[in-house]
Write a structure and sequence with these properties.
The structure holds 2 protein chains of 2 kinds.
Chain A lengths: L1 E5 L2 E3 L5 E2 L5 E2 L5 E3 L3 H15 L2 E8 L6 H8 L5 E6 L8 H15 L4 E5 L10 H9 L2 E12 L2 E7 L3 E8 L2 E5 L11 H7 L4 E4 L13 E7 L9 E3 L4 H10 L1
Parallel strand pairs in A: 1-6, 1-8, 6-7, 7-13, 8-12, 9-12
Antiparallel strand pairs in A: 2-5, 3-4, 9-10, 10-11
Helix pairs in contact in A: 2-5, 3-4
Chain B lengths: L3 E7 L6 H11 E9 L2 H10 L3 E6 L10 H11 L3 E5 L2 H13 L4 E5 L1 E5 L2 E8 L4 E7 L4 E5 L16 E4 L10 E7 L12 E5 L9 H11 L2 E4 L1 H4 L22 E5 L5 H4 L7 E6 L12 E4 L2 H15 L1
Parallel strand pairs in B: 1-2, 1-4, 2-3, 3-10, 4-9, 5-9, 12-13, 12-14, 14-15, 15-16
Antiparallel strand pairs in B: 6-7, 7-8
Helix pairs in contact in B: 3-4, 5-8
Classes of the chains: A alpha/beta, B alpha/beta.
The structure holds flavin-adenine dinucleotide (FAD).
Flavin-adenine dinucleotide sits at the interface of chains B and A.
Protein name (chain B): FAD-binding protein
InterPro entries (chain B): DHS-like_NAD/FAD-binding_dom (IPR029035), ETF_a/b_N (IPR014730), ETF_a/FixB (IPR001308), ETF_asu_C (IPR014731), Rossmann-like_a/b/a_fold (IPR014729)
Family (chain B): Belongs to the ETF alpha-subunit/FixB family.
Chain lengths: ~250, ~325
């Protein structure tokens, strides 16, 4: 089974600083692999191991993709090779642009049986790239998949919805977005990290995949920190704390 | 502020359609509901305020997603200017596939719509709740998914009628066979409506210890909610009970956060509480900056004392 896992590089959300004018500063935020995409990478590795298949990784985004630590970060989690399209034109890509660029790259990569995506990127979390990508590639498309079992040339998957779990038979090729509870991503060891440095990385530009001018249908106006309700911030300590809290709130 | 001519509304459960119909009325002149199900569901859509209904059929032994192609064809033919879709996993899959065909993106989980300069501006949370993103779509057909509580449903009017168009089923290109459906034993809990919520976090060492929080909740008539790791990871409480950007948004009079550190992703879900109480043993926990009253102390001593206090004072 030939598997490709898509992932996104996102800013570390813990390091985002709210400035006085309520805009967000990313100056101190390091780039990292999207948290939910790690589950997709792991799901790809489990399947490749179970079926004797191969798993590669693919990402599109800004120049930060070229960071060697991030490249090793993804390859040390198992994929045998990596494909990246790094262009600052794509840094603010919306879901349609992203899915279009991924689809173009995947076509250039050749045939595939399964594309895996995380449920959503841990920065913008629109949960749309997987569904759009599947449609653009014209294959079976599913989201919310929490379990994948290979059965011959098909997959049996569980899909966890709001109030039911669907068990489905999926023919390949397919694009599947997986949930965070599908697995526990492996932590790469020293050996994996060293091996990662030797794996092949292919970098293409937008022209290579023929997508220099995909329109971005979404226009961003602003991103500001949400209004915070003013809080009293009264800290109670010591013997009388419970009594005081009781008097203030529960009486 | 209706700037659109035709607004399509769709929810994968008809009872979720009421708020979307109300929203459609605010933003456009003609609200057309896409309804999948028996005749009664069509009637319901009219009672919620739909002006006309595109009846997709009766589902029967098909899956809801089998109608994606049918919806795509209908939208391509009728070209509504706006499509409002109720946020759910199924609907997000349908919305994404539809948008790809329309060569556009989906404005997801919209919390607020405003009309500015004849443009429809939307707001949604990004960066785990640290940011509120305002954006708009330049596409001819704007597709947005909307969560609960964004629009207020109109009063149901069973006398309303309208035009019904029967839509032909379009065979799915890649049918998926359903082997089994397991209903989740989710106790339906409506945290958003609770007047008082007790939230538990990773400060609790064992699942059994949650009885302490439940005792407090019973005493003060509260629902029990939690941080995400308690529901996803520990699985000590059902997912319906976790509060935050990816969980429930609560707006109680009192929110008592116990053993919760106060990460932004959690706090955006509780920020609308009138009063926030925090119990945490770490004086430096970020929750204290976002609370009205905080007790710095071990929950295993503070909670029993508070429960005792409330009991004797009753
Ligand atoms: C994209 C994204 C979305 C997310 N969405 C959500 C969401 O919707 N909701 C959500 O909740 N989280 C969400 N998270 C996770 C969030 O970032 C935090 O990891 C989570 O909220 C932390 O849960 P916690 O406070 O229970 O645990 P911790 O952060 O581990 O905090 C435990 C606290 O308990 C205190 N404590 C320990 N022992 C005791 C004791 N004996 N007595 C008193 N206090 C004690 C500690 O001092 C600590 O402050 C999301 C994360 C990401 C990246």
């Amino acid at each position: 089974m030939k598997i490709i896992t898509c992932y996104k590089i996102v800013p570390e959300e813990q390091d985002i600083v709210v400035k006085d004018d309520r805009t967000l500063s990313f100056d101190r935020a390091e780039w990292k692999i999207g948290q939910y995409d790690l589950n997709a990478v792991e799901a790809g590795m489990k399947l490749a191991e179970a079926t004797g298949g191969s798993a590669s990784a693919l990402s599109i985004g800004g120049k930060e993709l070229e960071n060697s630590k991030l490249k090793k970060g993804i390859l040390s989690r198992g994929p045998k090779e990596l494909f990246i399209i790094a262009d600052d034109y794509l840094r603010e890509a919306d879901t349609f642009q992203t899915a279009s660029a991924l689809a173009a790259a995947i076509k250039k990569m050749g045939s595939f049986d399964l594309i895996l995506c995380g449920e959503g990127s841990s920065d913008l979390y629109a949960q749309q790239v997987g569904p759009q990508l599947g449609q653009l590639l014209g294959v079976t498309t599913l989201n919310a998949v929490s379990k994948i079992i290979p059965e011959g040339n098909k997959l049996v998957v569980e899909r966890t919805l709001e109030d039911e779990v669907e068990v489905l038979e999926v023919t390949l090729p397919a694009v599947i977005s997986v949930t965070t509870d599908i697995n526990l991503p492996r932590i790469p060891g020293m050996k994996d990290i060293l091996a990662a440095g030797k794996k092949p990385v292919t970098q293409w530009c937008l022209a290579d995949i023929g997508t220099e001018n995909i329109d971005c249908p979404t226009r961003s106006i602003s991103t500001l920190a949400p209004d915070q309700t003013e809080r009293k911030q009264i800290i109670l300590e010591g013997e009388e704390a419970v009594q005081k809290l009781y008097d203030a709130v529960f009486k | 502020m209706g700037i659109f001519q035709t607004v399509f509304v769709y929810a994968d459960k008809t009872e979720m359609l009421a708020e979307l119909c109300a929203g459609g009325k605010q933003l456009g002149s003609q609200v057309c509901a896409l309804v999948l199900g028996p005749k009664e569901e069509v009637d319901k859509a009219f009672s919620y305020g739909a002006d006309s209904v595109y009846h997709l059929g009766e589902l029967k032994d098909r899956r809801i997603e089998d109608y994606t192609e049918t919806i795509i064809h209908l939208v391509q033919k009728e070209k509504p200017e706006l499509i409002l879709i109720r946020s759910s996993k199924r609907a997000k899959l349908i919305a994404g596939r539809l948008a790809a065909e329309l060569k556009t993106s989906v404005l997801t989980d919209v919390m607020e719509f405003t009309v500015d300069n004849n443009e429809l501006h939307t707001k949604r949370l990004v960066y785990g709740g640290a940011g509120l993103k305002r954006e708009y779509s330049t596409s001819e057909v704007v597709v947005a998914t909307v969560g609960g509580g964004v629009f207020e449903a109109l009063i149901e009017d069973n006398s309303r009628k309208g035009n019904i168009v029967e839509v032909d089923f379009v065979q799915p290109a890649h049918p998926v066979r359903c082997i089994e459906i397991r209903k989740k034993e989710s106790e339906s809990v409506n945290l958003s409506a609770a007047k008082c919520v007790v939230g538990v976090g990773r400060g609790f060492a064992k699942q059994e210890d949650l009885t302490l929080a439940k005792d407090l909740a019973n005493l003060i008539g509260a629902e029990v909610g939690c941080s995400r790791p308690i529901a996803e990871g520990e699985n000590w409480l059902p997912k319906e009970r976790y509060i935050g950007v990816s969980g429930a948004m609560v707006k109680p009079d009192v929110y008592v956060a116990i053993g919760i550190s106060g990460q932004i992703q959690h706090m955006v879900g509780a920020n609308s509480a009138k009063t926030i109480v925090a119990i945490n043993k770490d004086k430096a926990a970020p929750i204290f900056k976002q609370a009205d009253y905080g007790i710095v102390g071990d929950l295993y001593t503070v909670l029993p004392a508070l429960i005792e206090k409330i009991k004797v004072s009753k």
